[in-house]
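task queued by scheduler; priority normal; single chain, no ligands, no partner chains; default sampling; output format set to structure tokens
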Amino acid sequence: MITAFRRHLETWPVRLFFALMVAAFVVWGVGDVVRLIGTKTWLAKVGGRTIEPQQFQPTFQRELAQAQRGLPPGQDMTPALRREVAARALQQMIEQVAVTREESRLRVVVPDAALRAAVFGMPAFRDKSGQFDRAALDQVLRANNMTEGEFLSLMRSDLARAQILDAVTAGAAPPDTLARAVFAFETERRSASLIELPFAAVPAPPAPTEAELRHWYANHTDQFRVPEFRRLKAVILTTETVAKSLDVPQSELQAWYEAHKAQFVEPAKRSIEVAIAPDQAKAQALAAQWRGGADWAAVQKAAEAAGGSGVALDAATERQIPDAALAKAAFAAAPNELAGPVQAALGWAVLRVTSATPGHEQSFEQAESTVRAKVLAERAAASLYDRAGKVDDLLGTGAGLDKLPADLGLAGVTGTLDAKGDTPDGTPAPIPGPPELRKALVEAAFSHPPGPPSQMTEVQVPGAGSAFYAVEVEQVIPASQKPFEQVRDQVEAGWVQDARIKAQEKVAAEMLAALRGGESLADVAAKAGRTVRTTPLVTRDGQDEGMPPQLQRALFGLKPGEPTMVETPDAFLVAVPDKIETPDPKADPARYNTVRDVLTRATASDLAQGFAAALRARAEPRVNQSVFDSFVQQ
């Protein structure tokens, strides 16, 4: 046997095998080779398809970034939240792969033309003139750390998924019983009869003693506290602040104007009256009647009697007129001139131009201020992230906020404010920028410790991209209690108001007890020398000055004739339901159909989720826990 083994060792295949083994030990080491044997590097398997770590990484990073933006400024991601984000991102990918398997099985294809139309049709990628804006797309891609190829692949997948899910949800419809119940809940109207007991109607009580005032003050110290204030410095970076630091040559403005000239052209418009007939002879008869002096109302009736119709279009551009032949005739005719008959898509048309507005093109000189603002905004948005990075680098070297260069487009803020963003005199602190930036900066000021400034923090501004800020807390002024002597008059006013409220509460409670004992609201009111007022009918979410919201919330939980007692800022109300109206769906078909539409969309969403869950279960996904844990622990 040994001889045979030696003979095998001398063959070339065996020699090659041992050479490869030696090379592996030299390059990786014995330990690494041993560890690699049997190691699973995939993250998940879904019905025979594999999700590799490098595929999951971009999705996970995007979800992490989105979750981080939702945290209060300065708060770090906890390990538990990181694991939750990773699990959610992985489940989304697993579901996408499961649906993609179904797309392949059904041979669903998304043509390039459909993909292009979907991208160009997204409102987020359009400028004010409604045209596709490449810069807006690039900004969204940068903000989401996504390449164009990744975005288009995701869009193609979403469109294919939509084709399948649309087929699944096409027959979605809520049960009539559910639709009627929701319709009744939303449209039910109620009114109430009530007795009002105003606090101001109670005579002033005897003057309180010093001891009573101090006791009331001790029980209401929260009303007499000075909140914590913080003195801070901050820098803000927005497209507006950057734009102020930029200078654009006149030649660049001229070039931009020429490239976007269509934005400065106001097209010609026509207001027209159009009578349409099913054939040329009837159209000629309509034209003769119109030329004979008939007014527009008479022509409309004549067109309808002839089997056609009459339509008026107000201030329409040539592209807005739905028929090319009709548009051509309208823009060829003079005001108050009759044109036609013209053969249109819906029949033979006779038209009259009632008014004509000529087109107008703004010259560069007329549009220069608008052009400058647009160019500055584009250049500012393009350089915003680079400038924020430069500020971050400078702050990382220990530079203070007041040592930052003046040419970065920063706006400085200093002052003292509370957690609501108000200054000590109660006015809002003058923080430039959008409300989202203001809110984030104030929150950061009250979570960042005194000392060195924070790094630049990004804030997403809906419809306006991003903004950045860094904040430095110079001093924390602790909350304090106003001394009794300083607020004595306020304490006495509060004590008197409380006494009046308690007096009316006692009267209201006695009235409520009498109503529950079987007395009518009118009798209870007469005994107390009060009047009964009836509120208007309102729905659950309706608003009316005659219906106090505190009573409205309670009213829809009452049975017919059941009394209640509620407190408003000015009075106690003792009330009983007056009228209860539940409309019939047949009496308001439009509202009922709206309810059905909402429920249909909800039912379709449930069907889509159930279908996706079924595909996921059919694919029998498996997760490699060790690889998943490596993402969470990074």
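post-processing summary
- The chain has a mean pLDDT of 84.
- The first strand starts at residue 44 and ends at 46.
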